[in-house]
Amino acid sequence: MSGKLFQRTFVLAVGLCGVILPRSYSATPSRPLVVEVDLDDAIQSVTARYVVNGIAYANNLHASAVLLELNTPGGLEDSMREIIEAIVASRAPVITYVAPSGARAASAGFFILMAGDVAVMAPGTNAGAAHPVVIGGMHVGKTMETKIANDAAAYMRAIAQKRGRNVQLAQAAVLKSLSYTYQEALDDHLIDAVASSPQQIFQEFNGKTIERFNGSTTVLRLEGARILVYPMSGFSRFLSWLADPNIAFILGALGVLGLYVEFTHPGFVLPGVAGAVAVVLALFGFHLLPINYVGVLLILLALAMFVMEAKLSAHGLLALGGIVAMVVGSMILINSPWPGTHVHLSTSLSVTLPLAIITIFLMRLAWAAKLQKSLIGPEAMKDSVGVARTDLTPSGKVMVRGELWEARALENIRSGTRVRVRQVEGLTLIVEPLEKSR
Q: What CA dihedral angle connects 234, 239, 240 and 244, to 10 degrees?
């Protein structure tokens, strides 16, 4: 009995120790967390806000690192600087990664690639061609162009030098528009590694010490890291869709057309409502983009030319001028030189030609209706031809349009004589013999 009692007491003591002792003694260490942010679009205000929020989200979760995956043609300088500021200020190290194979980090994307704590490219990718282009393609003089280029080059030197990368070649991407393949970037020390997947990055850099932008150092803990993708919200995707210049231009054209149909054919309601919504969405999209107001004036001039063509019938000359003005206006509408941030020629032509045809056609219908003689009311009776049913001496009865009317003539008219209506006074027609009116 004493042996059994001792055994039970021992088991109970062990159980109590399991409750009392801290759980950390038996718990397995948690896996590192890496937040993935995908920049797979032109760099503009919406995508910049998405990246900044993604980095802030990773910091709030105390993630081990941020994986900023890049596939971008470039974008706006202000948005690029906003992203770089978030990278530099991030508590969690930011790994900039050009992926998948075939992707690129061009123009502003190259600056962001260089700004990462760790810069990596996937096989088959390229980066560079970061020379600034004057907004809207407008000529500002050689001195101003040199200032803009030198400012961008200095910004690139500051980033590359702080990150310990090849300053000369990084600057050459800005001043000489050089672009580099993944292997060239690795051999010339523009990036830190080439990797086919995030897991390969984690394996290669796990346990390595890196220097942060503020001069401090940190050890990367990435072994077996789990990836948490930070998704772009549906609303942000919608805003990004609106910020596409091609979408905004199409919405604006459809909106103007819908409002025009409603104004020229009141009572349809649907074209007016849909047009108003489309115009508001287009204006919001353009609000997110840098607008060249010369382009806006050219588009308004084009619409005026379409209306004048319908009224004046200028044998297509005004219509042709309007088409040229709208195409040119749409092409320079967005004040950005970067690919993906302007209206494509195909979009401009596919919108301008139908818009010109429909506008001129509807305007001619409205103009013809305005000039057409009224078919109802007193005005419709003028110049109508009828027959005197009684002698007009000078008053009597006439039959006009199948209706018997009181009539008065300026001279006596015999019954059966054909008459023409010259004027309407109330319910009395003023007539004269048809032969005399000839």
A: 140
